[in-house]
Amino acid sequence: MLNLINLTFHYRKKPALFKDFSLNVQQGSIVGLLGKNGAGKTTLLNLLAGLMPPQSGDILLNGYVPFERHPSFLADVYLVTEEFEFPQVTIETYVKAYSPLYPSFDVIKLAGILQEFELDTTSKLNQLSHGQRKKFLIAFALSSNCAVLLLDEPTNGLDIPSKSQFRKVLVSSVTDDQLVIISTHQVKDVDTILDKLVVIDNGVLLLEETIENLNQRYYFDTVTKLQGMDPILYHEPCSMGYKIIKPVDDGHESPLDMELFFNAVINHALNQD
Amino acid sequence: MYENAVFSWDRFVKLMKQDWLLNRQRLLMNLLVLLVSCFVYMFFFLSVDPEQFERILTNGVSKHGFYNDYYKTFLFLMTVLVVLIGLSFYWSSSHQRRQFLLLPASTFEKYLSAFLIRFVGGFILTLLIFWVCANLARLTVQLTPQYGYAAERGFAYEPFSYYLFTNPESGLGKQLWLNVFSLLSSGAFFFVVPLFFRKLPLLKTALLYVTILFGLITLSVGLSHLFFPETSGFDIALTDYRIFHDMDAFEYLFNVLLSTAFPVLLVIGYFKLKEKTV
Question: In B, which residues are within 8 Å of A50 by CB distance?
């Protein structure tokens, strides 16, 4: 569904953000695109949405070259940006204006998600809080039933209950025909809903792995001291002592500590593994 | 899914509807402001005191003496429209630009929809607004005592119609076509050129427009001094070569330039929009 082949991209007069970057992702998964600030996550989403062309290499998403901006491609890919603006209209008018342009749009699904998010359709979009507007945008994106959903920092600006509402709604509405790519640096917000992890840093792909495989390979624990715990692949101090990552040795799996794992990947602590 | 990548009537109608639903309040408000300000301006322009009427009547100025004043007001209103057309592809933020580029429609449909609503619709509505305001102002002025004084002496405002601009008595003739072409090409300039700028597109477009205009004048002055040494100051020396019985070479040149600029600019704009990035 998504094929990036030897992608090279740089902004004008800036060094290359991606060089020979390749990635392959199939439909039916929720992919976490993780990276530090400035790693190129938003740029990658913009490239996938067709907002910018790469300098070299190929992007093929859902069978289309994004920058050609074929109407069918645009009708089947929805990008939820981190920053957004709305016209001076109500939710109802916005939906009436935009939904006919998405052939698979499901108005009933939207009503359900809006209810879940406690949003009133008669509210004026610009009178809502940032978090409420973001929830509306997420609701609209999910109701569009687009084959590809690109979510850039979707949990930024959401309060704690809204973050769990977001996870619940996302998991319940995404189907096997869809591909959802969530770009975030707030890894804890999405750690329970991801099927696959992609970590990038300075335009380089550091990791591309399914959560299932990671759970089978790494064991996450909290210990009071490090002595006698070999082999430890990565550790970080915490209030209880240390958070550690070690290889799974006896088949026992542990919940994936996404934040710890991300730090380990970024610090190249798992390279030898 | 959409099969036609360039134009689909169904998609185009949805796009126009989307534009109307989101922008109708702002468009209607703009129209109302334009209508009221145009009416007020025309009312004060047509209202003259008894002494002025006396002078008009004594000096034998015909009732058609108002053609040029109507025309100047009309051109002023059209200039406002041309600048407003510059807002067609004006995005105040990268998010607005992103949202436009990601609308599920072809570039041609988005371009055509903006052209029809802002450009064609703008010109038609402005023509209508001016006609309504000119006649409404005339009818209102006729209710004033000053007008009653002039009317007793046989003075009458003629109902305004665009035919007045083509009336040989108005003396507008060739200038009218030149101005029509100028308006269309200026509209196309303001419609297209903002696409080339990321920040302050309208201001930069206006500056470029003025620069080109002054550049052409300066070039003409320079050439005049070069080929006609007797030219003084900022005068432009033109030799009157007749091409047609009622048109000299320069008028013909400007007519050709301005009439071709319009479609050429529109084509350039389409390709620029197609390659537009966020």
Answer: 101-102
ipTM: 0.90
Chain A residue set in contact with B, beta carbons under 8 Å: 46, 49-53, 69-72, 74-77, 79, 81, 83-85, 87-89, 93-94, 96-98, 100-103
Collapsing DSSP to helix, strand or coil, B133 comes out as: helix
Q: Hey, are the CB atoms on A100 and B106 less than 8 Å from each other?
A: no
Would you state the structure tokens that stand for residue A111, as one six-digit string? 């009503």
pLDDT, one tens digit per residue, over A59-114 is 999 999 999 999 999 999 999 998 888 988 999 999 999 999 999 999 999 999 99
Confidence band of A15 (pLDDT split at 50, 70, 90): confident
CA distance from start to end of chain A: 29
Strand partners, A180: A30, A149
Whether B77 contacts B129, CB under 8 Å:
yes
Within 8 A of A61 by CB-CB distance, chain B residues are none
- Using DSSP, state whether A19 is helix, strand or coil: strand
Could you tell me which residues come within 8 angstroms of residue A154 by beta carbon, excluding any fewer than 6 positions away? A80, A134, A138, A166, A182, A184
Record the tokens describing residue A36, joined without a space: 């530090």
Q: Among candidates B183, B186, B260, which has minimal Cα distance to B252? A: B260
Torsions phi, psi of A30, nearest 5? -105, 115
**Own/partner pairs, A42-45, CB within 8 angstroms, 24+ separation:** A42/A82, A42/A152, A42/A183, A43/A9, A43/A11, A43/A17, A43/A18, A44/A18, A44/A183, A44/A200, A45/A79, A45/A150, A45/A152, A45/A181, A45/A183
Nearest-CB residue to B22 (from A49, A74, A97): A97
Surface-to-core class of residue A176, CB atoms within 10 Å of its CB (0-12 exposed, 13-18 middle, 19+ buried)? exposed
The number of beta carbons lying within 10 Å of the beta carbon of residue B92 is 10
Contact of B72 with B170, CB cutoff 8 Å? no
Angle at B257 between CA B256 and CA B261, to 5 degrees: 115
Compute CA distances B176 → A175, B74, B168, B171, whole Å.
Answer: 63, 12, 11, 9
CA B197/CA B204 separation, integer angstroms: 7
Whether the bond into A231 is cis, omega within 30 of 0 = yes
Q: Which two tokens stand for residue B65?
A: 């003496």
pTM for this predicted structure: 0.88
Interface of B with A (CB under 8 A): 1-5, 8, 11, 14-15, 17-18, 21-23, 25-26, 92-93, 95-96, 98-99, 101-107, 109, 274, 277-278
Q: Is the pLDDT of residue B233 over 90?
A: no
Query: Residue A65 and residue A2: Cα distance in Å, rounded?
Result: 10
CB contact under 8 A, A88 and B25: yes
A28: left (phi > 0), else alpha (psi -120 to 50), else beta? left
pLDDT in tens, B47-87: 777 777 777 667 655 544 555 667 778 888 888 888 888 88
What residue ranges define each of the domains in chain A, with the CATH number in brackets? 2-202 (3.40.50.300), 212-266 (no CATH)
Which whole-number Å values give the CA distances from A98 to B11, B23, B168, B227, B238, in the listed order?
Answer: 11, 13, 51, 61, 56
